[in-house]
Amino acid sequence: MQPYLDRALSDSEYQEAEEHLADCSYCRKRYRFEATLRQYVRHAGAEMMDPALKAKLVALRTPLE
Amino acid sequence: MSETTPNDGRRLAQDARDRVRFEEEALELADQVYRVARRLVSTREEAEDLMQETYARAFRGWRGYTPGTNLRAWLLRILTNLNIDRGRRQQRTPDTQPLEEGDYFLYNRLEESGRDTNVDEERVIERLSQDDIVDALSAVPHDFRDVVVLVDIGDFSYADAAQILDIPVGTVMSRLHRGRRILKGELASKTAVEA
User: Fold this and answer.
1) Any idea what DSSP says for residue B63?
2) Mind listing the pLDDT tens digit for each residue in B16-45?
């Protein structure tokens, strides 16, 4: 399931997985759950940078001569 | 002071243009790099220090970047190496072994609580707060966490993550699998409080 979720399967493996999911409701539920969790982690784990930090990074640039 | 020939002058000007463009592209990626950096370390202060060190090094070594290749991965490689050099002072070793049923544990627990409260599993996920997720992630041992953060938050492919961390793709996959299992186990224990 994991490589399927990560889109890391070959075309033929992907095809097999899709066919299985079409028939198996348990796996479909698990897939939906995993995908939702993955999405949630991505959003919840994302944090914005402090603008003051951005300014400090800009200040690191090599000064133009 | 030696004279520069017209050719030298042109080269220097082109060099400066290339460098400026590199710096601008790198700065445009800062938010995305930070998003990953913040989840690799424990505190905001550490993340900010890491970002400054990374960008200072990136700007100094800009010629080491091949234009057209993945700049975000290049920057994160510098960052993860710096993080390793710092000795990972915030290491946490797991005191419990991840449950073998880890993959199903959270799913089953959420399914159970779903049955009790008549709520969709997905809604139960949504009840987890941002702090829950952040706490759970920081409880994952760093070797596994690095991979989970790069793939699940940074959205990198297995191959890119492998290059960033300088480990084989197979190791990426096994650490990812294990890391996600541990993460789910941590999240499950947080939902237990509500159930």
Assistant:
1) G
2) 999 999 999 999 999 999 999 999 998 999
ipTM above 0.85 for this complex: no
Q: Rounded to an integer, what distance in angstroms lies between the CA atom of residue B20 and that of residue B12?
A: 12
> For residue B26, how many other CB atoms are within 10 A of its CB?
23
pLDDT tens digits, residue range B129-184?
Answer: 888 999 999 999 999 999 999 999 999 999 999 999 999 999 999 999 999 989 98
- Residue among B56, B107, B121 minimizing CB distance to A60: B56
The half-sphere exposure of A61 on its side-chain side, counting CA atoms within 13 A, is: 17
Domains present along chain B, CATH in parentheses: 6-85 (1.10.1740.10), 102-194 (1.10.10.10)
Touching B: A residues 25-64, CB under 8 Å: 29-30, 32-33, 36-38, 40-42, 44-50, 53-54, 56-58, 60-62, 64
| Boundaries of every domain in chain A | 2-59
